[in-house]
Amino acid sequence: MYHDRLEAGLALAKALRKYKNDPGVVLAVPRGGVPVAFVVAEELGFPLDILLTKKIGHPANHEYAIGAVSLTDRFIVPHNGVQEEYIDRETEKIRRRLREMYRKFMGDKDPEPLKNKTVIVIDDGIATGNTLLSTVNMLRKNEPARIIIAVPVASRNAIEKLSKEVDDIVCPLVPDVFFGVGAFYENFEQVSDEEVIFYLDKLRELRKAG
Fold this sequence. Notes:
This protein is an alpha/beta fold. It folds into 2 domains: 5-50 and 114-209, Rossmann fold, CATH 3.40.50.2020; 54-105, PRTase-like (Ybab, Chain: A), CATH 3.30.1310.20. The protein is 39% helix and 19% strand. The protein has 6 helices and 8 strands. It has helices at residues 5-15, 33-44, 84-106, 130-140, 156-163, 193-209; strands spanning 24-28, 48-50, 53-58, 61-70, 74-76, 118-122, 146-150, 168-170. The strands form 2 sheets. A 5-stranded parallel β-sheet has the order 2-1-6-7-8, with helices on both faces. Helix 2 packs parallel to helix 6. The protein starts with a helix and ends with a helix.
């Protein structure tokens, strides 16, 4: 059990120290992953960027994901009856929202280059891992040296599923019975856009001061 996302970040940072000397990048899944990633990026001295992906829902059931879209890429699992025009239309719609979100959080800063880097993907927890699977497939196209998923808590099923797809998974808490990510935090209030911006700005200030 963690008190909050900052305490969870400290636990993760301790477990990730073995990568401190790598040329690395921390990618936070907003919004909940940002406070966790802030602590890790500060401890490791890595740049912090946000990882924006959103699922594409099936035209007959938008809750059922048929793939995911990032700012620059997409990963689609072929489904019978799903037209290319639908996928293109949804991709553009999603990208518009992701670009707005990126500008809001990062301003006009270019995304961190990932080629030949140790890329550490951080969220506040993983229930199923399905969305992250698509994200990992897209990240591989950037040719990182390795991809590491780091989360404070995850279900055993998610760990087993994702461990086959990445170079390392760091997760200090894998409970036998998983009731959802929030069950393992004393304070699991929703992270606001303002808090995301606060942590990103705070890390920049700390880097300037250092």
